[in-house]
Amino acid sequence: MEGYQNPFLERKHYYEHTEWIAEHISQYFGESPASVFTEIPVLDLRVDVHLIRPENAPFNILLTSGMSTLEMEVDEGIENPEELAFAELMLLIPKNIEFGQVYTGENVNDWILTILKRTAKFPHFYNTWIGVGHTIQAEADLSPYGHDTDYVAGIILPSLTFDRNFTEIRRDGRKINIYCILPLYMNELEFKIEKGYNAFVDLLKKWNGPEILDLNRENLISKKSLWDRFLRK
User: Fold this and answer.
1) Residue 3, domain member (yes or no)
2) Mean pLDDT throughout 41-57?
3) What angle do CA 135, 141, 142 make, to 5 degrees?
4) Which residues of 136-172 are buried (b: 16+ CB within 10 A; e: fewer)?
5) Considering the entire predicted model, what is its pTM?
6) How does pLDDT run across 185-198, given as a tens digit for each residue?
7) What's the CA gap between 95 and 117, in Å, rounded?
8) Could you tell me how far CA 74 lies from the centroid of its own chain?
9) Among 166, 161, 168, residue whose Cα is nearest residue 212
10) Phi, psi of 63 (to 5 degrees)
11) Share above pLDDT 90 across residues of the chain, in percent, rounded to a whole number
């Protein structure tokens, strides 16, 4: 784009992290079928998304690659900031979800990829960091990620499916965290902001839903009965 200047050109890039992630996937899942949604053209930070299809699992996996090419600016006062400086995002999806061959942002189910790509870029555009418990909204006006979903935000969570052997990549004195992201409806986001992360986790525990993305998930607090049962005891 003429006149556009990449805001990250002067930042230190850790391009080797993309190789580490690819090797990590191969090591963990072997020859499981996989494909990559590559971002073209790249006007700022390139964030690709691996689609992994484990043969013996009831889900497929979307995993970003590119978020960790830049170091996040962890808040001062956070203990062991070097443990939180690099991250990638993961989303488990049903086997039957399909995508177009090329990511445009407008295809059916592209909003799922948009959640990952947009959230992965957020900390670098705003010189901040994200970790477990943080929520990132889709748009400033709280409009949804796409025309075919009502999800307006996402919350960063630790994986319930995978242990540290998969969710932590440690090489050359660095650590890349792999976090899960759960899409949120408007009032779920408002609840988390008002009540805090621990209260939201309590709500999730009582819901006891699967970690796999549900395109038609029931709103956790949309009905008064749910609010009374889970939150006001």
Assistant:
1) no
2) 88
3) 45
4) bbbeeeeebbbeebebbbbbbbeeeebeeebbebeee
5) 0.90
6) 999 999 999 999 99
7) 21
8) 18
9) 161
10) -135, 125
11) 71
Question: Which residues constitute the domain of residue 131?
Answer: 16-185+211-217
Find tokens 């039957």 and name the residue.
96
Distances (CA, A) of 67 to 7, 33, 116, 188: 15, 23, 10, 26
**Whole-number pLDDT of residue 41:** 66
Amino acid code (one letter) for 36: V
At CA 109, angle to CA 182 and CA 43, rounded to 5?
85
Query: In this structure, what token pair is assigned to residue 163?
Result: 């242990």
Determine phi and psi for 98, rounding to 5 degrees.
-120, 155
The number of folded domains in the chain is: 1
Among the listed residues 84, 43, 40, 89, the one whose alpha carbon sits nearest the alpha carbon of residue 64: 89
Question: Strand ranges (DSSP E) for 8-167?
Answer: 34-37, 48-52, 59-65, 86-94, 135-137, 153-157
Contact partners, residue 137, CB within 8 Å, separation at least 6: 152, 153, 189
Question: Domain for residue 61, yes or no?
Answer: yes
